[in-house]
């Protein structure tokens, strides 16, 4: 997995996370402190997984439930990142091997129809992995949804108690 470095991108003065391949691409600084940002920060797509990393804001008065929710969101994000990084790395590697084996001399690429043989074989081979991933993804999101609802209800009732 590529290291995550912070790249300063002028977009309403926000800092964005970006996985980089070399130090030449980026200015290396520490990711933002979750307690000092005003909202969740979303970075550009990872070049391998194509997912955008998020730094989740940590409220100063974060409750134990809110902390549990934020940590679970981070864990799910990392799990998702690892799955798609492994999956896409395998895909790129196997596609390169397929091209080396099947690319006729003098030709630079295969047609979409010719590549469809590889795509179908890759999807068939990884079918079980995708089913397992989808089942786990739904389970994790249902847990996150349950925690999000609890956090929201706690905030609503806390506000009503203040008034």
TrEMBL record:
It is found in: Mitochondrion inner membrane. Keywords: Membrane, Mitochondrion, Mitochondrion inner membrane, Transit peptide. It is a peripheral membrane protein. GO terms for cellular component: mitochondrial inner membrane. The keyword Metal-binding does not apply. GO terms for biological process: intrinsic apoptotic signaling pathway. It comes from the Eukaryota. It holds the Pfam family COA8. Its main location: mitochondrion. Belongs to the COA8 family. This is COA8 family protein CG14806, mitochondrial.
């Amino acid at each position: 997995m590529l290291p995550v470095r912070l790249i300063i991108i002028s977009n309403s003065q926000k800092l964005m996370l970006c996985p980089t391949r070399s130090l030449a691409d980026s200015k290396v600084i520490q990711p933002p402190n979750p307690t000092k940002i005003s909202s969740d920060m979303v970075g550009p797509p990872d070049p391998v997984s194509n997912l955008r990393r998020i730094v989740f804001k940590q409220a100063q008065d974060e409750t134990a439930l809110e902390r549990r929710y934020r940590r679970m969101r981070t864990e799910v994000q990392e799990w998702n990142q690892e799955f798609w990084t492994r999956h896409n790395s395998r895909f790129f590697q196997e596609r390169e091997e397929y091209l080396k084996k099947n690319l006729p001399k003098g030709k630079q690429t295969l047609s979409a129809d010719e590549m469809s043989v590889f795509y179908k074989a890759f999807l068939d081979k990884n079918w079980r992995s995708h089913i397992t991933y989808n089942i786990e993804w739904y389970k994790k999101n249902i847990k996150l949804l349950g925690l999000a609802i609890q956090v929201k209800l706690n905030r609503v009732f806390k506000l009503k108690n203040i008034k």
